[in-house]
C-alpha cells in the first residue's frame, strides 16, 4: 500500500512541480538593482540555486519512483529510507511550486486614454 502512495505522490505532486519549476527557472521577482553587474550576479546565483533544487527534486523523485515500482514488481519490502526520501521530495516540490514554479497572472493593459 505504501508503494502505491509513493508512486501516486511522485506522479501527482513532484513531476508537475518539476515541470513548473523548469518553466519558472529564470523568471525574476521584479526586484532590480541599479547596478547592472550586481543584477547579473544575483540572477546567476538565483538560477544556480534553483537549478540545484530542481536537480535534487529530480534525484529524489527518481529514487522514490524506481524503488517503489521495483518493490511492487518484485513483491519486495520497500527500503526504509524511501519514505524519508519521498517526504523530502514532497516538501521540496511544494517549495518549488510556492516560490518560482507558480504562474503569475498577467497584468492587464491600461485602457487607452479617451
Return residue spans where pLDDT drops below 50 for at least 5 consecutive residues.
none
Number of domains: 1
Order of helices and strands: HHH
Global structural class = mainly alpha
Helix run count: 3
Largest sheet: none
> Helicity, in percent?
55-70%
What's the total number of strands?
0
* End-to-end distance: 64 Å
Q: Provide the gyration radius in Å.
A: 19 Å
Beta-strand share of residues: under 5%
Mean pLDDT: 86
Shape descriptor reads: elongated
Keywords: Membrane, Transmembrane, Transmembrane helix
Transmembrane segments: 6-22, 43-69, 81-100
Question: In brief, what are we looking at here?
Answer:
The protein has 114 residues and is an all-alpha fold. It has 3 helices and no strands.
Description:
With 114 residues, the protein is an all-alpha fold. The protein has one domain. It is built from three helices and no strands. The model has no long low-confidence stretch (mean pLDDT 86).
Amino acid at each position: 500500500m505504501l508503494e502505491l502512495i509513493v508512486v501516486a505522490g511522485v506522479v501527482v505532486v513532484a513531476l508537475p512541480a518539476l515541470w513548473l519549476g523548469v518553466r519558472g527557472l529564470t523568471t525574476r521577482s521584479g526586484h532590480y538593482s541599479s547596478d547592472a553587474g550586481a543584477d547579473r550576479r544575483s540572477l546567476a546565483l538565483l538560477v544556480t540555486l534553483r537549478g540545484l533544487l530542481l536537480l535534487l527534486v529530480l534525484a529524489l523523485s527518481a529514487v522514490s519512483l524506481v524503488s517503489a515500482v521495483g518493490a511492487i514488481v518484485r513483491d519486495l519490502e520497500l527500503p526504509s529510507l524511501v519514505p524519508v526520501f519521498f517526504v523530502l521530495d514532497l516538501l521540496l516540490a511544494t517549495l518549488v511550486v510556492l516560490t518560482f514554479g507558480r504562474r503569475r497572472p498577467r497584468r492587464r493593459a491600461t485602457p487607452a486614454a479617451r
